[in-house]
Amino acid sequence: MPSGAPAAPEPLTQRQHGFMLALQRRMAANPDRGVSFEELRLDLGLSSKSGVSRLVQECVDRGRIVRRKRSPRSLRIVAPVSELDMPEVPLRPTIAIQSFSDADILLEASRRGLIRA
């Protein structure tokens, strides 16, 4: 790869992919005006704009969008995604959970000296 050529964008998680699709739809619907974090928050069903800010930064870090500093509504997509490229990566790893009876918990707590039997 020649020096100065842009690197290929990194893969996205499912949540980041959904964010990119929402951003692309919003920008296509109103191309003459930038997208606000509040609009994206509502589109994604998030409870605060900090979640949008985190997703924006993650997509910037992965080379999908660029953002001008100190400029509102200044997102620009440099590597669009398609609905067909849905990532296979799960949002959270699956963890096997073992259940314990109350008697097991009391026995272990007693063994550790946390309670008196």
Give the biggest beta sheet. 2 strands, antiparallel
- How big is the Rg? 22 Å
Distance between the termini: 69 Å
Give the C-level CATH assignment of the domain at 14-83. Answer: Mainly Alpha
CATH topology title of the domain at 14-83:
Arc Repressor Mutant, subunit A
Helix/strand/pairing category: mainly alpha
CATH architecture assignment of the domain at 14-83 = Orthogonal Bundle
Mean pLDDT: 83
Instruction: Give the tally of β-strands.
Output: 2
Q: Helix fraction? A: 40-55%
Strand order of the largest sheet: 1-2
Question: Which ranges are low-confidence, i.e. pLDDT below 50, for 5 or more consecutive residues?
Answer: none
**Number of helical regions:** 4
Instruction: Note the overall shape.
Output: elongated
CATH superfamily of the domain at 14-83: Winged helix-like DNA-binding domain superfamily/Winged helix DNA-binding domain
Q: Please trace the helix and strand order, writing H or E for each element.
A: HHHEEH
Fraction in beta strands: 5-15%
